[in-house]
Amino acid sequence: MQPAVKAFFDDATNTISYVVRDPQGSSCAIVDSVLDFDYASGRTDTRSADEVIAYVEAEGLKVEWILETHVHADHLSAAPYLQERLGGKIGIGENITIVQDTFGKVFNEGTEFQRDGSQFDALFTEGDTFMVGQMRGEVMHTPGHTPACLTYVIGDAAFVGDTLFMPDFGTARCDFPGGSSENLYNSVQRILALPEETRIFVGHDYLPTGRDEYKWETTVAEQKASNIHVGAGASKDDFVSMRDARDAKLAMPKLILPSLQVNMRAGQMPQPDDNGDVFLKVPVNKL
Ligand SMILES: [Fe+2]
Question: What is the pTM of this model?
Answer without folding.
Answer: 0.97
